[in-house]
Each structure stands twice: as structure tokens, then as C-alpha cells.
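As a warm-up, study this chain.
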Amino acid sequence: MKFLHMSDLHIGKVVNGFSMIAEQKHVFEQIIAYIKIENPDAVVIAGDIYDRAIAPVEAVRVFDDFLTNLAGENVAVIIISGNHDSPERINYASRLLSEQHIFFYGAFDGSIHKVAMHDEYGEVVFWLLPFIKPADASFIQEGEEIDSYDSYNDVIGAALRAADIDYNVRNVLVSHQFYTKAGFTAVLSDSERNPIGGLDAVDAGIIERFDYVALGHLHGRQSVGEKHICYSGSPVKYSLSEWRQKKSANLVELGEKGDLKIKALPLVPLHDMREIKGEIDKLMSDEISSLADKEDYIYAIFTDEDEVIDPMIKLRSVYPNIMGCRPENLRISIDISDAAMDMEAIENLSDYELFSEFFLYVKGREMSERQIEIVRGLLKGADAE
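Now compare it with the structure written out below.
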């Protein structure tokens, strides 16, 4: 049994004002090309189809085109909802589509749904578990109701027990949750929603008996302790924290019980996301800018010691898809958040520099061009008085 595992499509995602629709269409074309070459039996999408519960019209059209192309390749399609999706909308027409071998499971109804397939070694059962919270649980296990006060771990464990899974056959779990394990450090991204303190964490030990676990939620490709418990990661880079990641989809092959092969199928972006660093004039020079695609999504760190006026405008003249920039030099490296900071050093900062550092400390990001313009205007007015 061969199938493709992907997740976290986030169709309709906008990153720093830039729509990712073109990037998403580009990777979907690559997925269809891989299917033509590899001939998998199924495509598994482990949640977060859309970036928002109410997806924009263009996003729905893009997903509709992708599904139509998948259906044309004669593969089963298995889809669950993620924490960004509207479960009810994902569920729409699911019974009708199942007749076309497109299986949606959006709104959790108290049980784990299954899709059984067969190959020369017998049965492979795909168990579908969409994103759920303790408050969503509506089933009864061993005579005790699971209520909203139980943990994610308790609810997932109870759902698995209620499913009555025969582990003698080959089983694949499709789930969209945050699974972790002792000794495992998850690679997290800024584009993910993560409750403070890991309150949504689920012990991966309760899913180890599956032959393969197709996970969604984390945007970086990684395994949770064991190689068969896998996050495929998002197919597109959705934040600066992902710029070093190589995006891919997992091609999974199940032979006889215990025989598992996993291969990463690279997904090449239309425009990459990357970080550049140096003095602003050098970053804008042909020598540097010609080293890669100027239309990539760029985050720039400029190291000029002198103040640079309107750096985004200057950089955008060379890099049209620049997403952000920030200075990094000795002059601004003073941390004004340190209570023990040398007062003499503070006195050497201009009013604008002090406010910029304060804004960065409080907000965790640089001011926008419009905000800079407003602050400069206010400070100029204050000086005039």
C-alpha cells in the first residue's frame, strides 16, 4: 500500500501582506506530478486545509481544483479537519463524496471514522481523527463521560480505546494534534497556534502501535520519537522561522506488517523565503542581489551603523517581495529592557531610537513604515514646541 501524506495546506494564507495562493497552486501542481510518477493508492491530508474557518472564495476554488485533479488520478483521498478549519464546512457533502473515494471527516461526532483499503498483503485501515478539544468530546467510555475538564491526552486516549482497533492488521492513524514524547523537542514555527505551556500536548506513547501515524499541526517535517510517527510539515513556508526548512510531502509504502518505507518528496517554491544580512548598499548591489531570485520573499537585516532612512522603500526597489527588515548594529544593540542598563548609554540614544527600542520590546516587531512616519511627525512636532 502506497500513499502520499501531506498536511497544513493553509489555503488562503496571507504572510506579511502577501497572498500565498500562487505558491500553493505551484506545490499542488508538483503533488499531481508526483502522483502521476509514483501511482499511490491514496492521498492523506492531515488537517488545516484552509487558513481560516471561513475561507475566502479564491481559497475554496483553489482547493476545488486540487481535489478535482486528484480525483482524475484515480486515487482515494482522505482528509480530516485541523484547528484552523471549520469542521462543519469540511464535513459538507462528505457522504456523497465518499462514493467518489474522497473521504472527509470534519466535525468530530464521538468516534474515530475508518476507511478500509486492501492490497496483496491484506487490509490497511486508515483511522480518521480530526482536531478535537476536551470540550468537544461527546462519547462515553467504560461508563464514564469524558467532559470538558479532561485533558487532550485523556480524550484522545479514550477515543482510541473506543475505536476497538485490531492491531494485528496494518493500521494508519490520521490525526491533527500536538503529539510529544519524553526526550523529543518539537520544531515549532511562528505560523502555528500553540497554547501557552503546552496544554494541548498529547503523549505519543498512546499512538505507537499504529503502523504509521500521519500527523498535521506542526509546520516543520519531523518524527515524534519513532520514525513511523510523522509530521509531514506544511508544503509552503509560512513564516520567517521556517526559512531554512526544506518543504516536502511524505511518500509512505506499507508492505507486510512491520515493513515500512518513508520517502520525502521535495516541494520547490515558486519564490523562496529567505533572510539576507549586511550593509544596505551591499544588499542592494548587483553582486549580492543577483545571487538568488530577487522576487523571493525577503527578510533583511541591515548592519549599517548610521541611521538608514526608509530602508523598506530602498530594499523594495531591488526586492519587490520584501516582507520585513530590521537593523542590527552596535548602536541599537543596547537593551533598554535591562533595568541595570548604564544611564549614560540611554542618554546617548535619540528620542526616536528610544521609542523604537521600546516598541520592539513591547510588540516584538519593528514599526511599520506608516508607524515610523507618525512617530517621526509627533517627535518633530514636540521639538517645534
